[in-house]
Design goal:
The protein is of the alpha+beta class. The protein contains 6 helices and 9 strands; from the N terminus they run H-E-E-E-E-H-H-H-H-E-E-E-H-E-E. It is 23% helix and 10% strand. Helix 1 runs parallel beside helix 6. The longest helix has 14 residues.
Length: 277
């Protein structure tokens, strides 16, 4: 429990979130400059994830059986080198030219220049300090998209041997411990063992954007009033969850409910997904 509280305090400290300005992903408009995206080729392997179901445990859908359709997911997060390729083809997304409406002042702050990966940084380490808008633009440029929360959580249930290890205390402990490792975002991808599906680094390197990252809501009933739903940290009440023992999942949803689409954080990256045709 102490570990859980410490992690939540850490998240709140680094984000310094203002709940009053929080808005839904569904209402966000795509940047006009996205219409001028130049496509690039991605050689990253994608893993086919067979559809299935899982039980939601956080937010407005707590306890609901979530159905996930078959889709494809990148086997690892997008790297510095891969993002650099995107920037060279789409310089409107470089740190000096990006429109501030779509990326705050922390966007690629650690990069020395528009086309210079940070000194000492591994080209194969996950790219970080990128906004949701930037991640979405990259995904579109390679003919993909960002995964949904449901898709990410579905794959995130798997350990090395099983599709759903959510009831395994050792798996939960592994996730929580990975959240506390410092400077992990500087490490290269695919250093560890892939999960059941063959997907690497769902935990242990960076937090990851999802398409509908701030769709996690709490019901008015949980606050014993008739107000509209608000994001996880903005409710001022107990979180609706079917399993409070799953601290690791709570931390992920807490982070998602606390960021805005233009936020850029030094341990927040992304990977891409694709709908099965």
């Amino acid at each position: 429990m102490k570990v859980f509280i410490a992690i939540l305090v850490f998240i709140l400290g680094i984000l310094q979130v203002s709940c009053s300005d929080h808005s839904s992903t569904a209402n966000m408009k795509q940047p006009k400059m996205e219409n001028h995206l130049k496509n690039i080729t991605s050689s990253k392997e994608m893993i086919k994830i067979e559809g299935g179901t899982y039980k939601a445990f956080i937010g407005k859908d707590s306890g609901r059986i979530v159905k996930v359709e078959t889709f494809y997911l990148d086997d690892s997060p997008v790297t510095n080198a891969e993002y650099l390729q995107f920037l060279k083809a789409n310089p409107q997304w470089t740190k000096t030219k990006v429109i501030r409406l779509y990326a705050d002042s922390m966007y690629l702050k650690h990069w020395k220049g528009d086309f210079e990966i940070p000194e000492g940084a591994d080209p194969q380490a996950p790219v970080t300090n990128v906004s949701w808008f930037a991640a979405d633009a990259y995904s579109r440029s390679v003919g993909k998209r960002l995964p949904t929360v449901d898709e990410w959580e579905y794959v995130g249930l798997a350990d090395e041997k099983t599709k759903n290890a959510s009831e395994d205390p050792e798996f939960t402990e592994f996730i929580l411990n990975s959240y506390q490792i410092k400077d992990k975002s500087k490490l290269p991808i695919k250093r560890g063992t892939p999960n059941y599906y063959g997907v690497y680094d769902m935990y242990g390197l960076v937090w990851e954007w999802t398409y509908d990252f701030n769709s996690v809501m709490m019901s008015g009933e949980s606050r014993k009033d008739n107000t509209t739903n608000e994001s996880l940290f903005c409710a001022g009440a107990a979180v609706t969850t079917a399993d409070l023992r799953n601290y690791a999942a709570f931390v992920r949803f807490a982070l998602r409910g606390s960021v805005k689409a233009n936020y850029c954080i030094n341990n927040l990256g992304f990977r891409c997904a694709k709908t099965d045709q």
